[in-house]
Amino acid sequence: MNVIEFLSQPWPWYVGGPLIAVVMFSLLYFGTEFGVSDTLRNICSALGAGKYSSFFQFDWKTGGWNLMFVLGGLIGGYIASTWLSNPDPVALNPATITRLENWGIEPTIGIAPESIFSISGLLTLKGFLMIIGGGFLVGFGTRYAGGCTSGHAISGLSNLQLPSLIAVVGFFVGGLFMTFFILPSILSL
Questions:
Q1: Domain residue spans in the chain?
Q2: Do 154 and 24 form a contact (C-beta atoms < 8 A)?
Q3: Are the CB atoms for 134 and 149 separated by under 8 Å?
Q4: 39, 137, 154, 158 from 21: Cα distances, Å
Q5: Please, are residues 172 and 145 in contact by the beta-carbon 8 Å criterion?
Q6: Residues near 167 by Cβ (< 8 Å), separated by ≥ 6?
């Protein structure tokens, strides 16, 4: 097995878990926390949005590491999708395929169904609700909860922060509610 084949396979928990722990210990050592929800605020502040809103009036350079982290994530995502992705179709449970077909979503080779996650899909009521409405709710929830899922679940829980525990429980309850009650209604449109 060559390096590309090795890297294109999912990493086992005993590799990924310790790597996350090393990152967390490094962040704790340097006195910062993990999370990317403030990245948009940093970008807006860097581009001069502080002239129009006091919310963006702060020293964005203190969050410069966060901008580099997101840039690294984008570059890493590009590298992974271009050179390290597995060409085999995603193995979905047959019951999931049947349920998606009943909602009018065709099976797809990738993870995201083209009928929803495309420009033509965005121009439908279903696509608009899922992409624009969902994006707005995620952004609002992130701001309201004081952080994103990764920030609360990885950084907040490792720091034993009670608000992060409450937020993570809320994320899971909300995700289950969405999956079993709201999403079927939207997909049935």
A1: 1-85, 116-189
A2: yes
A3: no
A4: 22, 30, 9, 9
A5: no
A6: 145, 146, 147, 152, 156
pLDDT tens track for 41-88: 888 888 898 899 888 888 888 877 778 888 998 999 898 888 877 777
pLDDT < 50 stretches in the chain: none
- Diameter over CA atoms, the chain: 55
The whole-angstrom separation of Cα 98 and Cα 170 is 29
pTM for the complete prediction? 0.69
Angle at 86 between CA 116 and CA 118, to 5 degrees: 15
* Angle, alpha carbons 174-128-122 (nearest 5°): 125
Report the C-alpha gap between 82 and 96 in whole angstroms.
27
| Helix, strand and coil percent figures for the chain, each rounded to 5 | 70, 0, 30
Rounded to an integer, what distance in angstroms lies between the CA atom of residue 53 and that of residue 143? 16
| Joined tokens for residue 104 | 């009018």
